Amino acid sequence: MRKYRWLVLLVVSLLLVSTAVAGCGKPKVIKIASVSPLSGAQSSMGEAMKLGVQMAIDENKDKFKKLGYDLQFTPQDDQADPKVGVSVAEKLIADKDILLVIGHLNSSVAIPSSEVYAKDNLTMISPANTNPKVTDRNLPNVNRVCGRDDFQGPWGARYAVETLKVKSVFVIHDKTTYGQGVADEFRKKAEALGVKVLGFEGITQGEVDFSAVLNQVKVKKPDLIYFGGMFPEAGQILKQAREKKIGAYFMGADGLDDKGLIDIAGKDAVGVVYSTAAGDVTKSEVGRNFAANYKAKFGKEVGAYSAQAYDSANIGLLALEAAIKANNGKKPTRAQVSTETRKVKYTGILGPVAFDSKGDNINAKIYIFEIKEAKYPGTLAAELSGKP
Question: CA-CA distance, 148 to 142, in Å (whole number)?
Fold first, then answer.
């Protein structure tokens, strides 16, 4: 055996070298998370966001493979629940391969979750969170591509006055950070424009019987019911209002921007007006191409925030690429990705995106839609920017 010892040593050495070379060639992992409600009443909106992110990641995998990185997608379900969102955030912050989070849908979930991400400067880019507090805390890792409720609510009020010609309104909200916040912004602007606010009442997410508040509405006979909240409750309120022969206009914000509103309210949804931070992708060639590719890939029509989620992911990927190059090809830190994110100038499906010092998109717009027939989406009625 001794005379073959050199041969055995040679084979072992060659195997070790081969293994080392193979190991060196293996791409390093970078994970990107989406966080949105993937179960429960708001899952259709959350799923549309998730698929927008997935589409962007799939389109960029080859580019990052050439840079030596394996892009991995890890979608998370926050159930539209702040406590669940924080739990998910803590899980994500513990996984050091996660360098980017796209989410959330609900501001009430995003605000506490982003505090967790901020502990290690994990970048969050939101397609849909509209409450001012999301960015007003000046967290360096938090950004959003959509508009804010202190634009959305007031623009809705101005449209109600100038286009719908309303003189009185009864405001209902779902007591959440988002719903009550946008309803309050609407109320303040409506009052400033001379509209009489006949009520400001809260309901609870998950309620199904709205007789108590609608009986108040029927007695006070407003020109308009404004709802700050999400489509599951909006659809039921609208349906029950029509059953009670309440003929007031019905208006809300982007929580109504989902096919689920039509599914619940049916023909009663005709005439509904809603503001949203998500535009109509079919208005441009690039948007139509995106919608066609999305449907071919997933077999579904684009949702309210599919395009913004896609844009958010692409912005994050550009920041990742810039951070890798600035780091001489090495895997960047979360802080480096956060820094690069604020520098990105990007033209997306719905127009240009650039972040200010707080992480707000300086080019964000608010859109007004009217449902003219019982199908989704509504018809674009106005495209607005700046303070109303």
Answer: 14
